[in-house]
Amino acid sequence: MPNLQSLASEGVILNKSYGQPICSPSRAAYLTAFYPFRIGLQNSAIRNGVADYLPLNLTLLPQRLRELNYSTHLIGKWHLGHCRVDATPTYRGFDSFFGLYSSANDYYTKMTLPGATFALGRPPAYDLRLNLDVYNSSEEEYETDLFTQRAVNLIANHSTEIPLYISLQYTAPHVPLKVPDRFLDFYPNVTDENRRKYLAIVTSMDEGIGQVVQALKDKGMFDNTIIVFQSDNGGKEGTGGASNDPLRGEKKMLYEGGTRLPAMIYSKNLISNPGRVYEGLFHLVDWFPTLLSAVGVKDSGRGMDGVDQWPVLKTESGLDPRKVFIYNINGGDGALRFGRYKLTEGNPGGFLGRRRKRSVDGNMDTALDLETEDTARTLQNTDRAAQLDSERSRTKRSSQNETEELEDILASLNNTDLEMDLRKLFQTLNNVDLGVELDSAGGRKANMSAIDTEGIVAVLEKFGPNNVSTSSVCATCELYDLQADPVEAHDMAADYQLLVQFLYHIYSRFKTQEVDPVLKEPPVIIPQSNSSLYFNNTIGTGWCGGPPLPST
Questions:
Q1: Which pTM was predicted?
Q2: Which residues pair with residue 18 across a beta bridge?
Q3: Three-state SS string across 79-104, please?
Q4: What's the DSSP call for residue 534?
Q5: N or C terminus of the chain with fewer C-beta within 10 Å?
Q6: Pairing, β 164-169 against β 71-77
Q7: How far is CA 537 from CA 115, 117, 127, in A?
Q8: Integer Cα distance of 526 and 533 in angstroms
Q9: Chain CA centroid to CA 374, Å
Q10: Nearest one of 391, 429, 438, 395 to 409, comparing CA atoms
Q11: Regions of the chain with pLDDT less than 50
Q12: Would you state the pLDDT for residue 509?
């Protein structure tokens, strides 16, 4: 991969970049700066043919950039809902869209995949659009090349007087593993056929990235461009051809193999001291405020989970701004990162669950109480208002009861000298915003840079199993020191019970912010008898409410 390698070696590699273990939640995190568990996308990808979509009153990154007069374009995979027209890309901040609505399609036929298309066993459908219109492509045209050429053409025809944002979201290397033979020739000695095809597909993508870079140079835009490369989830091993070695797990898992993702950032003129590896924690939600900061806009409000990391990426100066993040929360399954420690609850090897109910009349557009007109309309629904009040109440009670809970932990100790150390620690924490309290607008404060995670851990590690007499607060929790054990081979929960209790205490405060993901009623699905909603066997929009389709 010479083109990606060149950008990475001359830019900044994000060695501890994290995201969700599957596509729709990761894309939502990137575009909104919110953890998926707070906006209802924590437990599954959005399925084709189901009335589900990214909440409509969330402001997306391209919308903010368009406010700054950027020309904004999406190429490739959307996968954030398409049942209503205002849930599609050109209504969510993109000036143009060329790509697919669904999770994946065949690189040549552009047909969605069997078993992944519609519920109830419906057959594959054609999925390639230019804005709202079906784009007719021949089966000889390779989709990766189409996406590359679209980006090249946009750059070539762009006025340099206007700032430009292109989100080029290749489907490569998603299944089905199909690729032109010339790329297979690069790997004659790879005996596993799935692996060989996977490598060839990545190589085809790398060639496309090289063509986009050359187009920027030809236009005279390259020197002042920021280029970000970011995967959306861990690789699918076996039939998917990927390898996450030496990390444990794969796509759809909360283990590192499903959530620790390749990422880099490059800019010839805007990043100093290039050719380095950034070892600080970085999460997909951080791109929103980081990229806005790079163009001179500070956007850390709205209760967002993202943290502006542009200063440290730009100059390698200052403290690492992220110390804590949430891998995911989905009922009894989830994980917290706290410095070098990772606490998991439930089953880290499973992810997919039932999507929560979403109405198609707009009454359930959001899981957040944001100050927008849409939210005012949403809160007219008394059930939703009651749910938000309950969430606030739980968080308030959590804060009020914190001292009592910590005193209970102290009472379980068998060593008075260590108890004094712990009391000092708790006194320090009382003066630190852990970033999980609701502010007056229902958003969360997100100042975690002041937390000395290593200092806290150093105190808690002094307490072995003989120093704590209480039973575990989390029978299904696992604990890993990812600095010493990045492959998650040794669960340390039994050895550090107090550390588990403390981390679970913090994690539980985040859990009060989860939107209920349980599907209480069957989802609204395209009626099987209404063939017109297939738009002549294509993946279509405008069938679950919202504004009417524009007349053509």
A1: 0.86
A2: 260, 283
A3: CCCCCCHHHCHHHCCCCEEEEECCCC
A4: G
A5: C
A6: parallel
A7: 15, 11, 9
A8: 7
A9: 24
A10: 429
A11: 117-120, 354-403, 432, 434-446, 518-522, 529-533
A12: 84
* Enzyme catalytic residues: 23, 79
Strand ranges of the sheet holding 478-481, from the earlier edge strand across to the other edge: 324-330, 333-338, 341-345, 478-481
Cα 365 to chain centroid distance, Å, stands at 19
Copy the structure tokens of residue 410.
């102290």
Both structure tokens of 55? 């909440």
What DSSP line would sit under 283-328, residue for residue? EGGGHHHHHHHHTT-----TT-S----HHHHHHS-S--S--EEEEE
Asked whether 285 and 306 are in contact (CB, 8 A), the reply is yes
At 112 the three-state DSSP class reads strand
What are the C-alpha distances in Å from 475 to residues 245, 348, 472? 29, 14, 6
| Mode of pairing for the β-strands spanning 227-230 and 164-169 | unpaired
Three-state DSSP class for residue 334: strand
Identify the pLDDT of residue 275. Answer: 92
> Exposed, middle or buried by CB within 10 Å (0-12, 13-18, 19+), for 191?
exposed
Distance CA 500, CA 478 (A): 8
